[in-house]
Amino acid sequence: MQLTINGTAHEFTGDPRTSLLDFLRDGCGLTGTKKGCDHGQCGACTVLVNGQRVNSCLTLAIMQDGHAVTTIEGIGTPDALDPLQAAFVRHDGYQCGYCTPGQICSAKGMLAEAANGWASFVSDNLEGQVELSAEEIRERMSGNLCRCGAYSNIVDAITEAMQAEKVGAA
Amino acid sequence: MRPFQYMRPEGLDHAGQLLRDGARPIAGGTNLLDLMKLEVEAPDRLVDINRLPLGGIAPTDDGGVRIGALVTNSACAADLQIRRDYPVLARAILAGATFQLRNMATTGGNLCQRTRCYYFTNIDQPCNKRQPGSGCGAIGGHNRIHAILGASDACIATYPGDMAVALAALHADVEIERPDGTSRTVPVRTFHRLPGDTPDLDNVLEAGEVITAVILPPPAGGTQLYRKVRDRSSYAFALVSVAAVVRMDGDTIGSAALAFGGLAHKPWHDPRVEQLLAGQRPSDALFHQAADLLLEDAEGQGENDFKIPLTRRTLLASLREATGGAA
Ligand SMILES: Cc1cc2nc3c(=O)[nH]c(=O)nc-3n(C[C@H](O)[C@H](O)[C@H](O)COP(=O)(O)OP(=O)(O)OC[C@H]3O[C@@H](n4cnc5c(N)ncnc54)[C@H](O)[C@@H]3O)c2cc1C
Ligand code: SF4
Ligand code: FES
Ligand code: FES
């Protein structure tokens, strides 16, 4: 069985018990994706599968047959940071950095969800256009814990990256 | 995690056969894999149902909606018709877990998610649900999240989910396929069981049965809301929740469909309370009567005693909001 990771095909032949997270880290050497809790409770393992953010600790690699996975290694490069990455650097959106790959992947997924008009628990209107206020961002990013408590800077970084993107698109 | 054989069924029939022979279905995996890591669940064969044709949200002939068992919680809450015509369902889903989890979690898996009882998830502790006959650690132990209604001497666990509470208020049905290829539907209100002497059984699914869809009746209209009280304002299970679908008839309550999360081994509903409210003018006195009736047989276990007054207050707040704010 095969899955695509950051655009490259990878063969998986391991133990069916292998989580997608363990396959990324141990099978593919992509250690950017972190293991915090291994139980869906922290978000450190967040990656994109077919463009949607998921917790890679709670799915099996073998279940992702044929799917396209994007990890932090597939987002930006040290020379050409993704706007989100650049904004995290500018705003001190991290201290130890352990949660950061998950935060960035999660934020990527969030922006796509918002662009598709997905409401959240704090949205007043279920059907309207989504405006990512600080309150919306906090709710939508609540699946990514930060033990260092960089939360307010993370919200600032995402807000800035989002506005930069809007200006860029206009 | 214990070793297992991973299988992909060729079709629904094949899945039914495998399941009848004792294999376990896996959909999003967000509950089952969590519990398999803890060895609370240890299936020797895992049937990956994700490639079966159980997706899609489609209108039914009578004006309702059919939600396929594999529709993710995210997709269901994002569906335009669900948001417009069944807002209590979208709200309840959005109140649960996180976007990451809801992107994987499915409609069928969500219904079948297991209790969050601390003793159930710890294999070193006694638990009649996990290991029938071993005792119940929560009775006389830590039971802050446990049931105040419908519990038994064998088990005081709660059903932890949000989505099913909204489905109970909406009078939705669960469509189930039997291993012989025939199907049956069960109201969501009776899909989950009370623990009784057999707390190992969460719901009425029998060996080999697969949930194929959830069926919503035609839109109920009215004011719909989902009020969830929890220990933190996001990413936490309900201590108490109320799903309400209230239709006003002038200045009286035409009908009030209510379901409650966090109170029992199933999404709780009480037809007596619904009857009491129907045809009445909204007032706090009436709402207190409704709470009295709802909580008539409520029993705290110690740490969860607070749920009794909390349920009353949450019901009052929900009814005030849904009826347009009675004083
Ligand atoms: C950290 C965390 C927080 C959470 N918070 C909440 C919350 O606040 N509110 C809430 O409601 N939920 C919450 N959840 C639970 C989550 O909603 C469930 O894990 C999810 O809905 C289960 O769906 P799934 O498809 O992943 O199920 P799976 O894990 O794949 O399966 C769950 C069970 O259902 C069975 N099953 C799956 N599909 C079918 C089918 N079609 N027919 C028959 N049986 C089937 C499986 O055999 C298994 O027993 C949380 C989960 C986590 C990890
Ligand atoms: S309450 Fe139920 S699930 Fe919890 S320990 Fe007792 S028997 Fe087990
Ligand atoms: S490691 Fe996956 S959510 Fe914590
Ligand atoms: S930066 Fe340390 S955990 Fe978030």
UniProtKB/TrEMBL annotation, chain B:
Keyword Ubl conjugation among record annotations: no
Pfam families for the chain: CO_deh_flav_C (PF03450), FAD_binding_5 (PF00941)
Domain FAD-binding PCMH-type residues, every copy: 1-221
Keyword Flavoprotein among record annotations: yes
Source taxon at top rank: Bacteria
Keywords: FAD, Flavoprotein
Entry's Gene Ontology molecular function annotations: FAD binding; oxidoreductase activity
Protein name per UniProt: Xanthine dehydrogenase
Source organism (scientific name): Croceibacterium mercuriale
